[in-house]
Amino acid sequence: MTAPAAEGEGVWFDGRVRSLPLARHVDARGALLPIEFDQLPFMPRRLFTVSGMPAGTRRGGHAHRAGQQFLVCLQGQVDLCLRVKDEEQQIPLRPEGPGLLIGPMVWCAQTYRSQDTVLLVVSSEPYDPDSYVEHWEEA
Q: At a CB cut-off of 8 Å and minimum separation 6, what does 124 contact?
């Protein structure tokens, strides 16, 4: 990974969401995508992937009260709908990057565009359903 995007470039909701460029290395042997945890603004507590959904599947649909997440599309394409109060942003994620850092109280829903899509999520907190904010109006 490289440095975070410059202010105003790849930054939304007053910095609560920002893109982080990915340094994908591709050659005849395949692709390597290093993610250096010390470049994230939090110590990762959990990693998970989401995969195998039919095209058009929508997941997420919540915010986290305190947790942060870093989302990386490893394969396919996932479109994010992000909301804070009445402001909304649509951001596509693709394997070539960037990754997206999502701060607390940013409501996010993902739409998976192809069945082969794989999303990696790096989270600052362990799983806790009580930390979820389900309705975007509350984020």
A: 42, 43, 44, 45, 67, 68, 69
